Amino acid sequence: MSRGSQTRAKIMDVAQQSILAKGFDGTSIEEIVANADITKSGFFYHFPDKNALAEALIVRHIEVEDALFDDLFDRARELADDPLQVMLIGLKLLAELIEDMPGGHPGCIVATAAYQDRLFDKSVRAANRRAILGWRERFGAMLSNIECKYSPNDEVNREALADMVSAVTEGGLVMARGLGEPQIAAQQVMLLRSYLKLLYTPASS
Question: Domain segments of the chain: what residues?
Fold first, then answer.
């Protein structure tokens, strides 16, 4: 990694830590500059403004999250061929990952940006939308594979069900942080797992 790339990554790391703790509007460029040990002109060399920084953080978040989910569900596919079992194993691995984080999950840049979208331009909102729709596309495809083999035991909208993965996970993180109980997020993922198991397991089983 070049020196310029290292500096850019350091700025983003420092900014993300502060933003997850205090939000975008509570994090100033001056604070980022001081904590990253760079000059203000150095910051603006990499990011013309906070919109550019926010978009870069979201794009990086998408890349990291995609890699994480690829890894979790690839591991699940190594353990099972059945599409329902792959989903259930993958969600269990996700819950374990969240539960094992020291001090709990730090939070989500996408959720933080969504809460404060009034601060951003169209490009940042579009990047955030891509992040959210990425969950819908990934889990919608997995649910489609499940429904090729299993019929749901209740009438459900597949797209809404795919969105439920994001809603439960992000909602669990909010509750965990608000109550100071890190285990809540993992518990919510496991409850979602139980719901999907009941929804798709044939009644005769």
Answer: 1-47, 50-200
Helix axes 3-22, 50-79, angle to 10 degrees: 90
Using CA atoms, how far residue 205 sits from 38, 86, 146, in Å, is 62, 18, 16
Band (pLDDT 50/70/90 cuts) for residue 130 is very high
**Separation CA 65–CA 32 (nearest Å):** 24
Could you tell me the CA-to-CA distances from 195 to 18, 87, 189, 198 in Å, in that order?
A: 35, 12, 10, 5
> What is each CA distance from 42 to 5, 13, 18, in whole angstroms?
12, 15, 19
The pTM of the full predicted model, rounded to 2 decimals, is 0.88
* CA–CA gap between residue 77 and residue 69 (Å, rounded): 12
- What is the CATH code for 50-200? 1.10.357.10
Class of domain 1-47: mainly alpha
Q: What six digits make up the tokens of 96?
A: 């374990």
